[in-house]
Amino acid sequence: MRWRLVVPVKALPRAKTRLAPATGEHRTGLALAFAADTVRAALACAEVDGVLVVTDDALVSAAVRAEGAETVPDTPGGLNRALEHGATAAAGRWPRSGVAALSADLPALRSAELARVLREASRHPRAFLPDAAGIGTTLLAAAPGIPLAPAFGGPSRARHRASGAYELALADVDSVRRDVDTGDDLAAAAELGVGPRTVGVLRGMAVGLRRG
Ligand SMILES: Nc1nc2c(ncn2[C@@H]2O[C@H](COP(=O)(O)OP(=O)(O)OP(=O)(O)O)[C@@H](O)[C@H]2O)c(=O)[nH]1
Ligand SMILES: C=C(OP(=O)(O)O)C(=O)O
């Protein structure tokens, strides 16, 4: 199965607020860098034919287009409405592809690990990958013709499981599960190794990360 990914990114001034205590004025630059690095790694994945970013932010649009993604404008109603909107657009344009929602905050994403996750997801009508904390979700995938039915936000692992999506239990896909919401998450991602845009922002930070 071939895949199209839908990546949601809200407007930078509102993004990654939980990172603020650790990163101060670098918060928005990091949110942008995470999205660009996530898209870059996703597009380098052998299973992926394209990435559709749902965003109203001009800086995000420019950055992800430079990486090779396409963009669609956001729609009111929050994260799951944005994902449904993107998934509907992707299914309309590429009806023979599977559609997967992928978090935009995976700066350590490795293309080969994403490929393993998507190959495993191909075996199920709907499947999801829990985040590193085991509370949320970083990827929700649906086969062609199957509605994505996203239920992201907070404790979404339990919601996706209850919705009947298959929970992927794969070892050694840490980079696909390593979402970054806090300073501690960013330190953990940096240990895995982050992409070039995030490296650039981290190098530019005058002071080290504050834990939090
Ligand atoms: N397009 C779009 N993306 C959204 C929306 N809400 C959230 N997202 C994205 O979905 C992902 C998870 O969002 P949240 O956890 O709500 O927010 P966050 O920016 O990651 O972090 P916090 O501000 O700390 O909650 C991030 O990639 C967001 O940019 C929305 O209304 N539209
Ligand atoms: C939106 C989610 O993630 P987070 O709140 O961790 O950004 C989620 O895991 O469903």
TrEMBL record:
EC number: 2.7.7.105
Reactions listed under catalytic activity: phosphoenolpyruvate + GTP + H(+) = enolpyruvoyl-2-diphospho-5'-guanosine + diphosphate
Single GO molecular function: nucleotidyltransferase activity
InterPro entries referenced in this protein's UniProt entry, alphabetically: CofC (IPR002835), Nucleotide-diphossugar_trans (IPR029044)
Pathway where it operates: Cofactor biosynthesis; coenzyme F420 biosynthesis
A Pfam family the protein falls into: CofC
Keywords: GTP-binding, Nucleotide-binding, Nucleotidyltransferase, Transferase
UniProt cross-references to HAMAP family, sorted A to Z: CofC (MF_02114)
Family membership noted in the UniProt record: Belongs to the CofC family.
PANTHER family (alphabetical): 2-PHOSPHO-L-LACTATE GUANYLYLTRANSFERASE
Role played: Guanylyltransferase that catalyzes the activation of phosphoenolpyruvate (PEP) as enolpyruvoyl-2-diphospho-5'-guanosine, via the condensation of PEP with GTP. It is involved in the biosynthesis of coenzyme F420, a hydride carrier cofactor.
Protein name, UniProt field: Phosphoenolpyruvate guanylyltransferase
Lineage: Bacteria, Bacillati, Actinomycetota, Actinomycetes, Kitasatosporales
